[in-house]
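Appendix B: complex inputs.
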Amino acid sequence: MLKNRIIPCLDVKNGRVVKGINFVSLKDAGDPVEQAEIYSDGGADEICFLDITASNENRDTIYDVVEKTSKKCFVPLTVGGGVRSIEDINKLLNCGADKVSINTAAVENPKVVIDSSKKFGSQCIVVAIDAKKNGDKWEVFTHGGRNNSGIDALEYAEQMEKNGAGELLVTSMDRDGTQVGYDIDLMSKISSKVNIPVIASGGVGNLDHLVDGIKLGKASAVLAASIFHYGKHSVKEAKDYLDSKGIPVRI
Amino acid sequence: MNVTIVDYKSGNISSVINSFKEVAKDKVTIGVTSDLNKIKSSDKVVLPGQGSFKSCVDALNKIKGLTDTLNEFAIANKKPLLGICVGLQMFADIGYEETETKGLGWISGKVSKIDNQNGKFKLPHIGWNQINIVKDSKIFKDIENNSHMYFVHSYEFVPEDKNVISATTDYSSNIVCSVEKENIFGTQFHPEKSDRIGLKIIDNFINL
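Resulting structure:
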């Protein structure tokens, strides 16, 4: 049977990991390649890099990181952050990314998703949705959560599926960084609305949150960053825990 | 020995290249090309494929003489060829993704959409699933039954002759995920993305 996936995410800025695992054994705690390898060796089902480089002149650093990582990690690699155009996607895929996640550009220019999924196949197009609750609905935010597009997140999710997205990476902005758990309501509503897999993100503080994301949020995969930082939990611990709760995982 | 990965400008093949180079080290030469002569002189060929059945077939046909060269390599000369994902699907006579499209016709059968049982199963079938080995295949040497492989597809190959099936995977039904017919091998899953166990399959193919 198909297994639920655990996807550790690394924030990369100017080619360096921000926060990260920080094991004593690491030669260089800021090296994304080394950290991705640790995740991969630990049983991560996929690896995700989120490029948070602010300045344009340092943008190319991510390509080098992706190229090096893809020569060492033989599980799928997703790269997001600052992906604007077909050219950006092409460049990342050529460097060895398996999937690219598109956020702001998918809102501003739906053609990017339509065209890229046609050109490269839906399997490598992940649309990242940053959603924030407003009353009884959720609105889609862009530019790293700074701008409110006013678009209804559920309708948007459905539209992105139609446009050719292969997966949706849904982040609750209300929960992101809080460590109080995923927005289960948001996850399950979007997951029920679309027929493509949903990756839950934003708010994981402990291993039970991962269980909830899958069991209650109906997510196919769970993405987490900070619970894996500084060795708080290893990917293996997370998988063993999910397994103990009856969730199918690859062990 | 040299192994050629056919680069026919369809989809992203960098992971395939990386994984074969990782396994080959310096013992085997890994070429990446659409050059017909280089393909002809290869010992083994890898046919990757991403995107839709139609887009891959169209891309193959765009390179003049490529289909003939592959036919000569795999059918006339019976040299080992491995198809991955849509690369495997193209072995079929016909595919139904986007529109009805003729395949290579190497293994009789069709490629049709996975039955998602009215939305009960999400498509694409993305992630790690176990393979059920139903026949000894040379590429499964030292691969345990029920090993996990990485999948990403919405269409499945349905061969007419069930004897070519070497493994299936369970997703809404028993989906064919590996075939072996004489010198022709194919995996629906991505060995290049299936961690160490996937690399072992690549190693098995290289060492055929």
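The CA atoms of residues 141 and 191 of chain A lie 19 Å apart.
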